[in-house]
Design brief:
The radius of gyration is 15 Å and the shape is globular. The protein has one domain: Vaccinia Virus protein VP39 (Rossmann fold, 3-Layer(aba) Sandwich). The chain is built from five helices and seven strands, in the order αβαβαβαβαβββ. The protein has a seven-stranded mixed β-sheet, with helices on both faces. 30% of the residues lie in helices and 27% in strands. 37% of the residues are buried. One of its GO terms (molecular function) is 16S rRNA (guanine(966)-N(2))-methyltransferase activity. This is 16S rRNA (Guanine(966)-N(2))-methyltransferase RsmD. It is an enzyme of class 2 (transferase). Keywords: Methyltransferase, Transferase.
């Protein structure tokens, strides 16, 4: 994986092969950040990265100037890799080792962007539970959005707070907002 833009542009990050992850493709990541670039000044945003995996999305936010990024993942090896990479590049990334649904039920956070990249084989109910918990527990600031990455075989358009989705190959980003568009 590589960082597309910002301070660490073109840096390659090689994750251990034994991590239970499926990193977002560079094409999809670049498209996502083009959308977000039209909505936010990255040096003013706070980010919560759920199912963070390798930290791929968080590194991109950090490279573009985000000053507060929190990654949540339940796998020790993923959290360890993110911590090592963030330290190496002096990125403002904090990690929390936790099962995401338990974290969302108990934590108290307010951020501009919540990004969630759960396993693509999640059930429709598990996918729907992410926006439900994010909005129910008020994780988003007034201008905030939730972005859920999923496969083209999952449809989240009927989930409350859904705004729109964008497809890139087999990847889809569904956007959720406090005030439905």
């Amino acid at each position: 994986m590589r960082i597309i833009s910002g301070l660490y542009k073109s840096r390659k990050i090689v994750a251990p092969k034994n991590l239970p992850v499926r990193p977002t493709t560079d094409m999809a990541k670049e498209s996502l950040f083009n959308i977000l670039n039209n909505l936010y000044y990255f040096d003013e945003v706070t980010v919560l990265d759920l199912f963070a995996g390798t930290g791929n999305i968080s590194y991109e936010f950090a490279s573009r100037g985000a000053q507060q990024i929190t990654c949540v993942d339940q796998h020790f090896a993923c959290v360890k890799f993110i911590n090592e990479t963030a330290k190496k590049f002096e990125m403002p990334i904090e990690t929390i080792k936790a099962e995401v649904f338990k974290f969302l039920e108990k934590a108290s956070f307010k951020v501009n962007i919540v990004f969630a990249d759960p396993p693509y084989d999640f059930s429709d109910e598990d996918f729907a539970k992410i926006p439900q918990l994010v909005f129910q527990n008020d994780f988003l600031l007034e201008d905030g959005i939730l972005v859920v990455e999923h496969s083209k075989h999952t449809n989240l358009s009927e989930v409350e707070h859904f705004s729109y989705s964008k497809s890139y190959g087999g990847n889809v980003f569904s956007f959720f907002e406090k005030n439905e568009a």
